[in-house]
Amino acid sequence: MRDYYDVLGVSPDAGADEIKRAYRQLARRYHPDISGDDRGATFLDVSRAYEILRDPARRRQYDARLGRQADWMSDEVAIDFPSVSSVLDRMRLSFFGDGPGASLSAEIALSGEEAFWGTVVPMHVPFLRTCARCGGRGEVWTDRCGTCRGRGELSMEHEVRLRIPAGVHDGCRFRFSICPEGSAPTFVDVRIRIL
């Protein structure tokens, strides 16, 4: 049986707010719509852990069961490194940002013929990628990273070929996302305008 506190990355004395915050961060990271199908099992583990630990009665039962099983491991020592938490928070922020990802909007102007027959529109979607040289820290040893200029991330562009279906109407909207390796997902909302 997996330790649900370890699954969420919180200590056994964590409060309800800390458990909820940990669950939300992990759910954003491992949700199948964002991470792909290969992490669905991890998302289920995170969801199960949250379901148990958010309910005070179920949490007490789980803690009692865990306490009975943990007696034979009483000689193990838990070491906490509070000085590392700020570094981990900065890394988490640089990799995943404050929210589930950036959101961009664009408007595409089409001729009547393009709208009638459909077309393919090339787009260059900007996104931020974690700097590979400094790993998102903004520094290499004690010097500021020259690649990202101390920001920990680089501005990049991802080329997308958006296929507009035949018979599209003025005001139609398309929504898609990109998730290049080393960056949070970027959501793009495209509105069609027919000239």
Please describe what this structure looks like.
- With 195 residues, the chain is α+β, with helices and mostly antiparallel strands.
- The strands form three sheets. A three-stranded mixed β-sheet has the order 1-7-6. Strands 2-5 form a two-stranded antiparallel sheet.
- It has helices spanning 4-8, 16-30, 32-35, 40-54, 56-70, 82-96, 112-117; strands at residues 102-110, 119-130, 139-140, 143-144, 153-164, 173-178, 186-194.
- The longest helix has 15 residues, at 16-30.
- The protein is 38% helix and 27% strand.
- The radius of gyration is 23 Å and the shape is flat.
- The chain has seven helices and seven strands.
Q: How many E strands?
A: 7
Strand and helix order:
HHHHHHEHEEEEEE
Low-confidence parts: 68-82
Radius of gyration: 23 Å
N- and C-termini, Cα separation: 61 Å
Query: Strand fraction band?
Result: 25-35%
Assembly state: single chain
Rounded mean pLDDT is 78
Shape: flat
Instruction: Tell me roughly what share of residues is in helical segments.
Output: 25-40%
Q: What's the tally of helices?
A: 7
List keywords for this structure.
195 residues, alpha+beta, 7 strands, 38% helix
Structural topology:
Blueprint: H1 4-8, H2 16-30, H3 32-35, H4 40-54, H5 56-70, H6 82-96, E1 102-110, H7 112-117, E2 119-130, E3 139-140, E4 143-144, E5 153-164, E6 173-178, E7 186-194
Helix pairs in contact: 2-4
